[in-house]
Amino acid sequence: MNITSDITLISLVQQASVLVQMVMGLLLLVSLLSWSYIFSKMMTLAKARRQTSKFEEEFWAASDIATLYQRASSRPDNVGALERIFESGYREFLRHRKSGTLESAAVTSGVQRAMKATFQREQDRLEAHLAFLATVGSVSPYVGLFGTVWGIMNAFRGLANVGQATLAHVAPGIAEALVATAMGLFAAIPAVVAYNRYAHDADRLASRFESFMEEFSNILQRQFKPTGR
Amino acid sequence: MASAAFAPNRLLGWLLSFLVHGAFLAFLFFGVSWQRHQPAPMMAEIWSDVPKPATAREVTAQPAMPVTPPPTPVPTPVPPPPAPPAPPAPKSPPVAETPNPADIALKKKKQQKAAQEEKKRELARQRDKLLAEQLRQERLDALKEQRQDEQRRVEAELQRRRAEQLAQNAQAAQAAQLDRYKLAIIQKIRNSTEVPEGVPDGLTLEVDITILPDGEVLGPVRVIKSSGNPRYDAAVLRGIQNAQPLPLPSEVSLRRQFRTTHLQLHHEK
Q1: Could you tell me if residue B227 is inside a domain?
Q2: A-chain residues within 8 Å CB-CB of B30?
Q3: Is B50 on the interface with A (CB under 8 A)?
Q4: Are residues B77 and B155 located together in one domain of the fold?
């Protein structure tokens, strides 16, 4: 019990071998980066959700779609993902109307393609950096384990020169090495949790976008008919 | 467009990330104690009744004693100063009665001499006064120091008494807890003991048992004092084996005291 009494966190890190220290540094860096993504992603997704709800409300309450479109195209920096999808679809629809295309199916499929393209761009943005979080979550425990194995190997190698081996000879080395595993887990756990959470959030948003796209193309098709007649 | 919307979030994300790591490190440094301390054994001197009356008398006596001394030193040094000024007063009047002009110079000389002597005496008196004052001050200081010493002693005494009281209380509490757990053990043994028919009331069996931390009884039970009835003894020993695991306190420090336990098992219907 008294063997561990003089171990502090700083000495654990300082006395570790260079490779273990490198592993620790790498894990700290990765952890910092993944936490920064966790926070920025959290804010981005929350903002996207807020904007989507707001736009859906506006869209279903609005009597005139043209004014919505004008507003969306007038301030392109400040609109949400769903609004951008709507804008691209409606722009395509206007173009068709201007060029005098009369065929309903052609217009609808054109509008849908335009919206699909924007949707994919938006989805890509929502899911950006999620792959990084997934990688951190799955790899950093192994990196930490690597540091630990290396540290324990060193601890046992040092034991070879000692005639009478006791636990006191290896315990500090093993404790040092285990810090690397602890750091790996510290980096991995939040990353895994955040990845699962954000992937789910992004999926839900994407399905909302998709259902909106379907509904909006229906509306446009209905609008097209009277003008085409 | 996209980068403009993302930049502030990234910055804030980094900031919060550093904050989280800083907080976690701070927790590791200050929240977790990396040293393992064995709780030091508590030492307590048990005084039955010796210090209490003594300190009580001292406490009541001390305030009375220091109050009376301070006035006495003040009057004693005052009398000495009035004595020296008396002699020079009567000398000057006879000198003033002679109107002889020839004597004027002499008279003047005499007067000067008198004045000088007067001055000397005045100086002497002042010296005396200063000395007296100094003496008085010293005596006062000594008294004050004495009083402070006494006060300090009284306080120390009080503190010691308080500490003793606390220690006694703690011991009493621990003893009460030990008794409670012991009673629980005896109760459990009694519950699992089947006393055979025909065993008379009022039998007492004393045993020593060694209890492992998980409540198991280690090795054979040592009978310290048999009840005189072998059937009762055997029943109780069987009961002890059946009662395992025995209930033990959850505190480690208390549990250690149960390593070897002396039990008195009393039989009554």
Answers
A1: yes
A2: none
A3: no
A4: yes
Class of residue A176 by CB neighbours under 10 A (exposed 0-12, middle 13-18, buried 19+): buried
Look at residue B76 and tell me if it is in a domain.
Answer: yes
In this complex, is the C-beta atom of A2 within 8 Å of any C-beta atom belonging to chain B?
Answer: yes
Q: ipTM above 0.85?
A: no
| Structural domain span for residue B136 | 51-86+102-169
Q: How far is A79 from chain B (nearest CA, A)?
A: 10
Cβ separation B17–A38 shorter than 8 A: yes
Domain count, chain B: 2
What is the least distance, in Å, from the CA of A104 to any CA of chain B? Answer: 33
Q: Is the bond into B245 cis (omega within 30 degrees of 0)?
A: yes
Q: Using the 8-state DSSP alphabet, how is residue B216 labeled?
A: P
List the one residue out of B42, B61, B227, B91 whose CA is nearest residue B153.
Answer: B61
pLDDT given at position B37: 59
CA B135 vs. chain centroid, Å, equals: 38
B215 within some domain? yes
Per residue in B54-84, pLDDT (tens digit) is: 444 444 444 444 444 444 444 444 455 554 5
Which A residues, 62 through 81, put their C-beta within 8 Å of a C-beta on chain B? Answer: 76-77
Q: Which residues of chain B have a CB within 8 Å of the CB of A76?
A: 1
Question: Do the chains contact at A9 and B34, CB–CB below 8 Å?
Answer: yes
Contacts of A38 in chain B (CB under 8 A): 13, 17
Which of B6, B29, B35 is opposite residue A44, by nearest beta carbon?
Answer: B6
